[in-house]
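[audit] Reproducing an earlier prediction to check determinism. Same input, same settings, fresh worker. If the tokens differ from the archived copy the diff job will pick it up downstream; this log only records the rerun itself.
[audit] input (380 residues):
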Amino acid sequence: MIPMNKPWFGREEADAILGAVKLDDYSAQSAIIEKFEIAFAKATGAKFAVAVNSEAVARALAVMATVDLQPAGMNGEIWASPLTAFSAYDEALWLSRFRLNFCDLENRSFIIDFPSLKQKIDFAKTNLIFISHSLGWPVNLEQPFQRFLEPILGQKIFIIEDCSEALGASISFLFNRKVQVGTMGNFGYFSFGHDGIINARDAACLITDNETDFERLKTFGAYVHMNVIQAALGLVQLAKLPIVLAMRQTIAKAYAEQIKLSFKSFSFTKGANIVNCCFPILVENRDALLKKFHENGIGAEILKRPSITSTPYFAWPEEGVRMKMLKIEQNDMFSTLYSALPNFKFMMEHVVKLPCFPGLTERDVTKISHIVNMEAQPCE
């Protein structure tokens, strides 16, 4: 069986966990957690980092640090890429208090379409914009985004970067200047779970360059901090990051050499340094190809559907009523979302994600590539 993703753990991780178990200090102020935060800030080019116990918590803290959640602040709007992975936790805590809007992607791309967003957004009502660096493909938030923000000079709209799948991704500019994801907006958050570039058992981390925001994050996150075992594991994994990125790049290069060109016609951001969270391809017969993969023990996947739509699917707040999550397939708003975002619809229907994790062998890559070349049908 070839899974979609797999942690790259060795003896170092086992020793680190054993050492963490023997620590006397398990509190949020433990030295090993602070050590991880300092190391992570340095690795991402940020001034400050706050480590927490999950991606959903990281996302919620970023929102809490930017938007007033009291009744007077509940009538704003949030815009996001449809690939931003909101969760039931977000819905229960804060998301149902705002109007959430999704913007379309660029043609044959995983990147938000700024011209489309500029036409639709109400700058006077918008509180937040979520930018997703999906699949490890970085979005340029400098020149094009600054031009996009020209109409709101003097008005504060916060930018939160979803870097869950993009640790190590960056944009290269002239004169060898490189900007890493997570450092272009007000906050960036990274997850270290099953789909992440590194794995620290579902922990996450926020970064910011603003000291005041950092102090607010520390206050909000005092009871949802990363634990010492996650920190110990994260430190070892973070030290391996350059090797992990190089191995993923080698695997992606092997795919690119073996898979026919017609399955790789995506549009890229100029200067993008992709980290290959997976290797995406475009096919006409997505479901048939996935079936063939699964018959051969290969864990390829489709793009994730958004967990929520522009209307809440949780009851909020009703006394004595247990919140019930409706199946997204049964929510009429999902079809509305599809029709309003044609490029996103195309990507959802035609993208297949191939495994690209360290430890994938040359034989594995050859087997997967052969199935693609023999069974897949290229998109028109």
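[audit] rerun output stored. Observation attached for the diff report: Residues 58 and 206 are 6 Å apart (CA to CA).
[audit] end
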